[in-house]
Amino acid sequence: MLTVKPRFETFEEYLNYDDNSEKLYELFNGELIEMPPESGLNFEIANFLLRNTILLSISPPLLVIEVVSPGEIQRDRDYIAKRIQYQDCRIPEYWIVDPQTQKILVLELTGDSYTEVGSFSNEDLIPSPGFKELKLKVSQVFARD
């Protein structure tokens, strides 16, 4: 069953929202709507449509950054399912930012598959194959000022 959450007046309110659950939500007209876990069939349909429609008219982004949500389902989605999806979309660079491990995994598309540039933590600089001028430390990403 889908549940409607409080309406957000500003984008900042949305960014600050945390209900301390592992539920997935979709933002629609300023309201959070709880979404059920994706089924295998939904994922297959979305991938089919993505490959056969959107890819015909839209250039992929140069970089996608996913922040891993708590929970095993979300973790698997970001580390496995989305990795495959972004690889199939030919996105040149994919970062997986993991607040639980305080690490950032950087992947680069080489041919038809991602290769790991590396896993970075603490004071490591995050090397970006596509944005060489970027000078960002992992510690800056996880800092809470």
- Structural class, please? alpha+beta
The beta-strand count equals 7
- The CATH first-level class of the largest domain comes to Alpha Beta
How many structural units, i.e. domains? 2
Task: Write down the overall geometry.
Answer: globular
N-to-C order of helices and strands? EHEEHEHEEEH
Question: Any idea what the CATH superfamily of the largest domain is called?
Answer: tt1808, chain A
The unreliable regions are: none
Helix share, percent: 25-40%
Order of strands across the widest beta sheet? 4-5-6-7
What's the average pLDDT? 81
Which fold name is given in CATH as the topology of the largest domain? tt1808, chain A
CA-atom Rg in angstroms: 17 Å
CATH architecture of the largest domain, by name, is Alpha-Beta Complex
Cα(first) to Cα(last) distance is 38 Å
- Main sheet makeup: 4 strands, mixed
Number of helices: 4
Kindly estimate the percentage of residues that lie in beta strands according to DSSP: 25-35%
